[in-house]
């Protein structure tokens, strides 16, 4: 019997700085209803789905940014989303800025089952950007200022008759992200992102290049680990800062099976057969037959670039 | 001052089983002369450049296959290639089946400087295929029968004013290959391949899919490590067994800057500016700022797939 997960990649159009959580949650609920109508049983929303992409704003006093963070999940504003998911029997994943009871800040995603229970949490590992205001950039990208690197690693959960893992935005550019999950047998990686349309340090790198790198990274991760990848954008112009969009679903062969062509709220629904992962996992990417970990040591020994080993 | 390596990706058309080394070396020399005319200072030939792709032939007695291997490099048949390279001041890399003095068999590539001295040797890590005759396959792929996995790891050498590493064929599908070299600062990865046009275990996967996976793997490896990748095919029909071709050069941004459109002997020449690797290495793939090796441990702890870690 095929193991089908009908996933809805639920792109959010821009969220302006002034828009409140209740308004965003209402938009997310409308997308969930649309996803349900289209037969989905699992909906995936972007990174930082509840707010604008606030790391573009510099604030000297970090504590003044805490209003962008969620101290409880669900909280008063997000409870209606959980209620709706439970009512529809819809599993979900979304990202938000997390403030822990002991004062830590993470860029977080959760996995919620169809009863509304949070069964998995992932905290973003690869924070891009910088800590201090950078006058050289066309726009700021202060994730390293407002977040700590995640402390969860890349777990994979038994979820919806399969094995599901999470990543967030810049994580998708790092092959280690997919491989750590691949070594747990992952069959579907879900990830959200907020990617500016222009490289803040190289203006010539515009939206087509940015979309190219995004697709390349998701497709390679899918193929090289024989997994579905569901990548969901926050898109469009947030207070004049343009995010590129490019919500897409990649099959375990590395092929894009669907991509949203717009920058608005919208769902891309696809029935993903988890058994399509089997061929790759049993042949060319049968890790136990082909991997040679004795030659991979630098990957976990070195953080940065070191001396070349050839002599 | 720009650090330009003008590389010639020297594709070989098919080598029939009956063709001898001297004849192949003469073809390689013609390509080297063409490369020189086009301004190249470094020529890269395919995997197993001297012979047909013999792992397609099953032989119960392995020793009977030793005639495909080189016991000396250079040897009598290959000395003219080294002589020509020295005469032209051309650095080179090519692959061959290596038989060591103590009886080991490797799928090997070498890096030869412009004086004809071998300064680097790489032995293929990721051997595809199988050990025993497999009646289920449309064609045999017996690399695991005739070769041992390489014992060199993935060194990077100071070469031609830059940092150069090697890989062979199936290695290019494994992100670990590029990352181990990336952690040594690699600026150009050269690799040769012999890739059948059809998947021997899934006939529906034909040449377009095979070229897609090839390009995807080379482009992702280049982008994610900010390195040039030079991938060189043996192409066309060897005694009725078709190899896909697809010789290409990828820039450190992941873009294909040139690809040979045919399956014959031919060179693709491109001036590769090694300084184009700097932007990626200093920004989004500045490993020392962004990598989190504490979360990569499974990559070197597990060979194959193990239990999922989510709970």
Automatic annotation (TrEMBL), chains A, B:
Pfam assignment, any one: CN_hydrolase
GO molecular function, one term: hydrolase activity, acting on carbon-nitrogen (but not peptide) bonds, in linear amides
Keyword Signal part of the UniProt annotation: no
PROSITE patterns: CN_HYDROLASE
Position of the signal peptide: none
InterPro entries, per database record: Aliph_Amidase/BUP (IPR050345), C-N_Hydrolase (IPR003010), C-N_Hydrolase_sf (IPR036526)
Ranges for domain CN hydrolase: 5-276
Domain of life, per lineage: Bacteria
Keywords from the UniProt entry: Hydrolase
Record protein name field: Putative amidohydrolase
Higher taxonomy: Bacteria, Pseudomonadati, Pseudomonadota, Alphaproteobacteria, Hyphomicrobiales
